[in-house]
Specification:
Number of helices: 5
Order of helices and strands: EEEHHEHEHEEH
CATH class: Alpha Beta
Radius of gyration: 14 Å
Strand order of the largest sheet: 2-1-5-4-3-6-7
CATH superfamily: Glutaredoxin
CATH topology: Glutaredoxin
Helix content: 25-40%
Strand content: 15-25%
Structural class: alpha/beta
Number of strands: 7
Largest sheet: 7 strands, mixed
Shape: globular
Length: 155
Amino acid sequence: MAIIVGQQAPDFKLFNTEKKEISLSDYKGKNLVILFFPLAFTGVCTAELCSVRDHYNVYTSLNTEVVGISIDSLFSLEKFKQEQNYNFNLLSDFNKTTAKAYDSLYDSFAFGMIGVSKRSAFVIDADGIIRYAEILEDAGKQPNFDAIKACLEQV
């Protein structure tokens, strides 16, 4: 199902690295940036999430939380988060339900892997409406963080 700006964001319930279930409704009243990323510990994914970590004050100043979502297990994500000192939730979509709901799943990925999250970025406003959607076919590219910030400044 294609994601359309202006639609209600698909709900999700996923576990974070502290083994706590997190859902979209936990962010009601705040803006939320969802970043789907292919795999923990890979170069582009690490650079992308480190950029968010290093500029997290920009998001908080705009009443925004950020979550990173991948198909990795919560145990792998816990190690990844610790090693990189990420200051936002990483959520495990091991069963791929949320990536499917956000149209962010590769049919085929590197090394014959099937069902890996596409690198994608979504801005969801305080009422749960999608205000920005970027789904990248090329996993080697990062989302347009300037466009994400511009969107957040307008919501």
